[in-house]
C-alpha cells in the first residue's frame, strides 16, 4: 500500500494536480505505518510552507504515530501547535491521555 500511495502522489505531481489536505493525510498515514516519522514530519512542514492548513485528522495521525514511538513531549508540542491554530478535538485529547497513561505519567 505504501508504494502505491507514493506512486499515486508522484503521478499527481507530474500531472500538475495539486494535492489537498486529504491527499496529504493519506500519504502521511502510509508513511507513519512504515514508522518513517522524520519523513512524515517533513511532509507536514512542507504543506505548512505551501500554505495548506493541516486539519484535525492530520494532527491526530502525527500525534498518534509520535506517541507510539514514545516521544510524548513531541506529541504534546504538536497538540500545542494544533490548539494555536484553533483546532480542538476530543479525539486528540483521548490520544494524548492514553499516551500519558501508558507511560505512567498520569494516573486515574
From TrEMBL:
InterPro entries: PPR_P_subfamily, PPR_rpt, TPR-like_helical_dom_sf
PROSITE patterns: PPR
PPR repeats: 20-54, 55-89
Listed Gene3D superfamilies: Tetratricopeptide repeat domain (1.25.40.10)
Keywords from the named record: Repeat
Repeat recorded as keyword: yes
Family in the record: Belongs to the PPR family. P subfamily.
NCBIfam families per record: PPR (TIGR00756)
Protein name (Swiss-Prot/TrEMBL): Pentatricopeptide repeat-containing protein
Originating species: Hibiscus sabdariffa
Taxonomic placement: Eukaryota, Viridiplantae, Streptophyta, Embryophyta, Tracheophyta
Amino acid at each position: 500500500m505504501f508504494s502505491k500511495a507514493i506512486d499515486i502522489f508522484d503521478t499527481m505531481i507530474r500531472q500538475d494536480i495539486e494535492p489537498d489536505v486529504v491527499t496529504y493525510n493519506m500519504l502521511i498515514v502510509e508513511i507513519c505505518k512504515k514508522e518513517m516519522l522524520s519523513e512524515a514530519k517533513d511532509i507536514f512542514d512542507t504543506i505548512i510552507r505551501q500554505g495548506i492548513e493541516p486539519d484535525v485528522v492530520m494532527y491526530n495521525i502525527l500525534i498518534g504515530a509520535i506517541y507510539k514511538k514514545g516521544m510524548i513531549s513531541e506529541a504534546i508540542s504538536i497538540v500545542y501547535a494544533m490548539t494555536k491554530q484553533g483546532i480542538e478535538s476530543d479525539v486528540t485529547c483521548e490520544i494524548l491521555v492514553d499516551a500519558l497513561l501508558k507511560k505512567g505519567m498520569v494516573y486515574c
